[in-house]
Automatic annotation (TrEMBL):
Name of the protein: DUF2905 domain-containing protein
Transmembrane domains' residue ranges: 9-30, 50-71
Keyword hit for rRNA processing: no
Keywords from the named record: Membrane, Transmembrane, Transmembrane helix
Organism (species): candidate division WOR-1 bacterium RIFOXYB2_FULL_37_13
Length: 73
C-alpha cells in the first residue's frame, strides 16, 4: 500500500514538472514577460541583480486562479 502511494506521488510530481516546463517554454516566447514595470534590474561592473517583483506577482495571481478552478468542489 505504501509503495502505491509513493508511485502516485512520483507521478504527480512528474506531471507537475512537465507542466512547469511547458509553462516556462511558453513564457520564454512572450517578449514582455520578465521585463514588466516594477521588475528591478541593477547592472554594475561584473554583476547584475534581477528581482522580478511584478512578474512574480502576475504569475502568483494566474496560478492561484488556475488552481482554484481546478480544485473547486
Amino acid at each position: 500500500m505504501a509503495l502505491e502511494s509513493l508511485a502516485r506521488l512520483l507521478i504527480y510530481i512528474g506531471v507537475g514538472l512537465v507542466m512547469l516546463g511547458g509553462f516556462l517554454l511558453l513564457m520564454a516566447r512572450i517578449p514582455w514577460f520578465g521585463n514588466l514595470p516594477g521588475d528591478i534590474v541593477v547592472r554594475r561592473e561584473g554583476w547584475t541583480l534581477y528581482v522580478p517583483i511584478t512578474t512574480m506577482i502576475l504569475v502568483s495571481v494566474v496560478l492561484t486562479f488556475i488552481i482554484n478552478i481546478v480544485f473547486r468542489k
